[in-house]
Amino acid sequence: MVSVIPGASRLTRGHLTLEEIAAIARTRGADRVTIIGERRGNPSILRVYSVSPPPEPPALRNIVTILVAGVALSRERGTARSVKAPGLCVRAEDGLEDYAEALILAWHARIALRGCKGVIAHIRRAPRGSEAVLEFEYPEGRPVGPRLRISRPSRMIKIGGD
């Protein structure tokens, strides 16, 4: 995920509290934190938080939660994984706009109309069920990063609203 989210860096949480993570994020100049939860060693949930601005005490506020039903990592798929993305654009099939809105809110992505200079996140219908497939690729079409099978965003809070 670090290779496809602009400005992302990795931190092993260990026993850090959410407040400690918020403080570290502030020192790194981040306004978002994504915590990847796991079940039996596989990613199972993406929780995206906004970081409270100073002078408020360091805290995280959950803004988007996405359940991960399946994942194929870049090393398993033979795709690029080490290049940092200069930006993230989103393309979603009709009827999947709420997924696109979640990525825009979570990682400051933009709708990909033309001329995306970063990684493009494609959201497509999964072959079966009510899930979607999230894949990333460079503008020239070369795949990068993981492929995720995700459920509809279960929680979305618009920044500045209730």
Itemize the secondary structure elements and their pairings.
Blueprint lengths: L17 H10 L4 E8 L2 E10 L8 E13 L1 H4 L10 E5 L4 H11 L2 E2 L7 E7 L6 E6 L9 E4 L4 E2 L6
Number of strands: 9
User: What number of structural domains do the residues give?
Assistant: 1
Q: Major β-sheet, in short?
A: 9 strands, mixed
Put simply, the count of helices is 3
What is the CATH architecture assignment? 3-Layer(aba) Sandwich
User: Strand percentage, roughly?
Assistant: 35-45%
CATH topology: Rossmann fold
Radius of gyration: 15 Å
Percentage of residues assigned to helices:
10-25%
Shape: globular
Written as H for each helix and E for each strand, in order along the chain, the element string is HEEEHEHEEEEE
The CATH homology group name: Brix domain
Termini separation: 28 Å
Structural class: alpha+beta
Mean pLDDT: 86
